[in-house]
Write a structure and sequence with these properties.
PDEase_catalytic_dom_sf; 3 domains; membrane; metal ion binding; two-stranded antiparallel sheet; about 0% strand; about 700 residues
Length: about 700
């Protein structure tokens, strides 16, 4: 029989033994038993060893409740004997028969939890439950008169039986079937022993039916609890199995292999006494490796303390200042808390739009086009000033109204008039990001300086965008690609340009920050903007997925953890139009498609290979949009929400994503049907494509 790891180990590495081999663990709902016997055995073992289970079925406290209850029963009934009888052989026999089962149980339970016993554990515990119940029945007043010829008073056995019945579930008895059959047998044994006593038959029948009724009620409760526990266990035990059926990143593959090794080592620890010390040492080493993989920000970061050991103080300072990469400081002094006051002060000339702007962060489908129209195409300036005032960041970081105004105006004017990558898109990304922030655990943990960095990063993430992809810039040997060495060309330019704007007179929005806060804010802005590079997509998603799989909790209490999530959040916001309502999504889709087509036109003119989905004559629009949502956007949102677990994001964003993807897929299917017929429309005739055509016509008319 397979057993679980030793209780008390690090929860991050105790994924328990069941995950070490493939299995079929489909649950039979009627009998509540897994079809695979190994899974069934592992489920029982995870209940016997509550400290080592990984799906939180039972709590250790449940075991303590039963142990305490049993101890109280033994003490109370033993005292009842002592005070009710004279010292005699019958008293000695009664004390022995009552306590021997309890003492044996405590001894066996201790040996089991220390893993010194590993054979027939469920059957052994069930036997002790049966023995203790029978010993309580033998304490009955009627049986004392009948067997021991004593008329002394005593406690009724009913109270003890009902108490251990209520507290023994998932501690001594692990399935509702075992619970029902065992207690049914006990109730009939009670009846069989009491009827020959010929004492108050009515009371005997009444107590029998009380036990029977309690057994029925407790069995029903047991069934539904067991169903919940087993379903939860089945989900958990299938997590690692599913990894074999999908592509894994390198880090996921490594952590998966280490988890398998930990499970094997656990088996050896439990079954091999001879090499137990060596196995324990190996387990600790593997646990340390797994913890390092999942907590280190940079696995290749050098241990400067080890390198500088033995150096004098001045040499140590020199090494750490000039040799170590210091781009990621996390100042200990940053203790500011997020202010939870949201009333915007009467400033920044946005009072007339407060009714509209208060939707930001609360309405996922906030219409940024309407805001752009209301502000004479200045949505970035308006939304930036509103956000700074909304969180009182101007007061916290001494940002003057004039610096705030000038920075956002300069930032907005630096956006080019592209169909898609323009200042309206930047404002929409900030609106989407703030919604994700407010509807998740991020908001409760983020600090003031992180909020400030997020606002600037979102509004700056595409500043100066020329309307072409990194691939085009590199292939055409554009000056930007030469400047940034072909590495994240646009993202490097966006982050650099945003800080260049701050250098202009009167536009330094970060001028009031202390040096350590400025470094932290600058780092976060750069990291978040660089995260929008699609070439980093699978690296970032893979790292987050690996953390989700390998960690039972979701740490977000350090700047490093929050930055990691915020990088995924800005990616989600950047492609967030795909998760918006149908009308908004169609409008944004048209704009991005038109920008792609303009690049394709230029690639043709330059004699370059036309990038995928950039050829206006050959691109299958529904297919391209469906594939983009399915393969890029949906995994971003699902990975993000697996970490932050927001029901609002699930309902408002992920469900809308699935609907939009389904619409595009349906449009693609319809298109193939139509184009299969001679003379049919090339684009099909679905409502979504009709809308897209009309939007395309509107766009052309507006640009002519």
């Amino acid at each position: 029989m397979k057993t679980s790891p030793e209780p008390g180990r690090d929860s991050q590495t105790d994924r328990i033994l069941i995950e070490t081999e493939p299995k079929t663990d489909t649950l039979r709902k009627f009998s509540l038993q897994f079809k695979d016997q190994n899974t069934e055995n592992s489920y029982i073992m995870s209940l016997i060893y509550p400290k080592s289970q990984n799906f939180q079925t039972t709590k250790v406290e449940n075991h303590y409740y039963f142990l305490t209850t049993l101890l109280a029963i033994l003490i109370i009934y033993s005292l009842g004997y002592i005070f009710s009888y004279e010292l005699s052989s019958s008293l000695t026999f009664q004390l022995l028969i009552l306590n021997i089962s309890g003492i044996c149980f405590y001894l066996s339970y201790f040996l089991i939890q220390k893993q010194l016993l590993s054979i027939l554990l469920p059957e052994m515990l069930q036997f002790f439950y049966f023995s203790i119940s029978i010993s309580l029945i033998l304490n009955s007043k009627f049986l004392q008169i009948w067997i021991f010829n004593s008329t002394s008073s005593s406690f009724s056995c009913i109270f003890g039986i009902l108490l251990i019945q209520a507290t023994s579930k998932f501690v001594l008895l692990f399935t509702f079937r075992a619970f029902f059959m065992t207690n049914l047998l006990i109730s009939f044994i009670y009846l069989a022993l009491h009827i020959p006593a010929e004492q108050d038959l009515l009371l005997t029948l009444l107590e029998f039916f009380v036990i029977l009724f309690s057994t029925t009620i407790e069995t029903v409760k047991f069934y539904y609890l067991e169903l919940e526990y087993r379903e939860r266990y089945g989900i958990c035990s299938s997590d690692i199995q599913g990894k074999n059926k999908e592509a894994m990143t390198e880090i996921e593959s490594i952590t998966f292999s280490i988890q398998q090794a930990l499970g094997i080592v656990n088996i050896l620890i439990l079954t091999s006494v001879r090499y137990k010390a060596h196995m324990q040492e190996l387990f600790d080493i593997l646990s340390k490796v797994l913890k390092a993989i999942m907590t280190k920000t940079n696995l290749y970061e050098v241990d400067m303390d080890g390198i500088t050991a033995g150096m004098d103080a001045e040499d140590k300072i020199f090494m750490k200042e000039y040799v170590k990469d210091n781009k990621k400081p996390q100042p200990e002094s940053l203790k500011s808390e997020l202010r939870k006051t949201f009333e915007l002060p009467k400033r920044y000339q946005v009072e007339d739009l407060l009714g509209v702007l208060r939707q930001v962060g609360n309405n996922w489908n906030f219409d940024i086009f309407f805001l752009a129209e209301c502000t004479a195409n200045k949505p970035t300036t308006t939304l930036g000033k509103y956000a700074i005032g909304k969180y009182r960041l101007d007061e916290i970081f001494k940002i003057s109204e004039s610096a705030c105004q000038k920075f956002f105006e300069k930032l907005e004017s630096s956006y080019k008039l592209n169909p898609y990558h323009n200042s309206t898109h930047a404002a929409d990304v900030l609106s989407s990001f703030l919604f994700i922030l407010h509807q998740s655990i991020l908001f409760e943990n983020a600090t003031d300086y992180e909020i400030l960095a997020c606002i600037i990063a979102n509004l700056s993430h595409d500043v100066g965008h020329p309307g072409f992809t990194n691939r085009f810039l590199v292939n055409s040997r554009d000056s930007l690609a030469l400047t940034y060495n072909d590495l994240s060309v646009l993202e490097m330019m966006h982050s650099s340009l945003s800080f260049q704007i701050m250098q202009e007179p009167g536009a330094n929005i970060l001028g009031g920050l202390s040096n350590d806060v400025f470094i932290a804010v600058r780092l976060q802005i750069i990291e978040m903007i660089l995260a929008t590079d699609m070439s980093k997509h699978f690296d970032l998603i893979g790292k987050l997925k690996a953390k989700i799989v390998s960690s039972p909790n979701r740490p977000i209490d350090t700047p490093e953890h929050r930055l990691e999530i915020m990088r995924i959040a800005i990616k989600a916001a950047d492609v967030g139009h795909a998760a918006k309502s149908r009308d908004l999504h169609i409008k944004w889709s048209h704009l991005v498609i038109e920008e792609f087509f303009l690049q394709g036109d230029l690639e043709k003119a330059k004699g370059l290979a036309v990038s995928m989905y950039c050829d206006r004559e050959k691109t299958d629009i529904p297919k391209s949009q469906s594939g983009f949502i399915k393969n890029i956007v949906l995994p971003i949102y699902e990975s993000l929400n697996n970490y932050i677990a927001s029901t609002v994001i699930d309902s408002d964003c992920i469900e809308e994503l699935k609907r939009n993807q389904s619409q595009w897929e349906h449009a693609h299917t319809r298109k193939r049907v139509f184009t299969a017929k001679p003379g049919s429309l090339d684009m099909g005739d679905t409502p979504m494509l009709k809308t897209l055509k009309s939007l395309g016509s509107d766009f052309r008319n507006s640009t002519e």
